[in-house]
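Tip: read the tokens left to right.
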């Protein structure tokens, strides 16, 4: 049994193992386990309050787990301090956009590079050659992502002046600037129109295929999740109720029941 678990771990980029989170009387997560293989797109679904954001907050180290373990590429994530999460390879977008609204698109994307630069106060002040090299490399990477996300025409625009759908692409560029191995997308389709949701689906697949990034996607937009996910994990009241292909999960009786009994 132990040998099987080791083999699964070797093949997985992310292992969530028996994770529980308790807030006073509420079990927001209750013994949740699942794996994400490299280059998979995994959809995480569930009605309101199911525990999806709580799980993302554990993966970002914003919340502590009361039980369980999380491994990223074999490394114990819960022993990693919060400020090193981007450095170890986890990028994230947020439900309510985490952008510097008064800054330009380029500067927002450059902010996402921060964890990949080694310059400090002194070396910056002295304009050491390494600093100049790092700055050039960061700008090259930022422009590469700006082109990838079709943001070239707005590169010098202030983020707050841009339409919501464009701001969402800026946030993706910012998250990708840290060169994550695992990208956590928290309701990326929220607030987008039908056409933008279709484009988002293609974009997430491109991120996986062209940038070699594994994706964990929390989303209420079922047709998006079901059309692009290799695997879907369903939560309800903090428990995992189903895991499998999109078709398997969609037809799972507990999933059908959870959604029939909720507002979604
Ligand atoms: P939604 O789809 O509405 O975003 P969700 O699946 O992301 O829901 P969570 O936000 O993870 O669900 O919430 C799971 C449970 O934990 C809920 O009962 C919620 O009220 C509770 N919860 C989440 N964060 C906290 C917190 N910081 N303090 C207390 N309770 C919390």
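Filled-in amino acids:
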């Amino acid at each position: 049994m132990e040998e099987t678990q080791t083999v699964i771990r070797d093949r997985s980029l992310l292992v969530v193992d028996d994770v529980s989170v308790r807030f006073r009387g509420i079990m927001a997560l209750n013994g949740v386990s699942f794996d994400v293989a490299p280059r998979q797109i995994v959809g995480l679904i569930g009605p309101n309050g199911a525990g999806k954001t709580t799980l993302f907050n554990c993966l970002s180290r914003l919340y502590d787990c009361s039980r369980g373990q999380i491994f990223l590429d074999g490394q114990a994530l819960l022993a990693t301090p919060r400020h090193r999460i981007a450095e170890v390879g986890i990028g994230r977008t947020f439900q309510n956009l985490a952008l510097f609204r008064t800054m330009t698109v380029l500067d927002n994307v450059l902010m996402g590079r921060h964890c990949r630069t080694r310059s400090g106060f002194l070396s910056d002040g002295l304009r050491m050659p390494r600093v100049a090299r790092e700055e050039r490399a960061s700008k090259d990477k930022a422009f590469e992502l700006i082109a990838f996300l079709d943001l070239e025409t707005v590169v010098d625009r202030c983020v707050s002046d841009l339409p919501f759908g464009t701001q969402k692409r800026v946030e993706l560029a910012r998250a990708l600037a840290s060169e994550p191995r695992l990208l956590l997308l928290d309701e990326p389709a929220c607030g987008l129109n039908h056409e933008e949701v279709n484009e988002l689906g293609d974009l997430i697949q491109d991120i996986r295929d062209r940038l070699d990034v594994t994706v964990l996607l929390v989303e209420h937009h079922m047709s998006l999740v079901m059309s692009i996910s290799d695997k879907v994990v369903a939560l309800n009241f903090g428990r995992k109720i189903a895991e499998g292909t999109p078709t398997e999960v969609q037809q799972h009786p507990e999933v059908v029941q959870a959604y029939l009994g909720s507002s979604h």
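Confidence is low (pLDDT under 50) at residues 1-8. Residues 23, 26, 28, 46, 48-54 surround adenosine-5'-triphosphate (CB under 6 Å).
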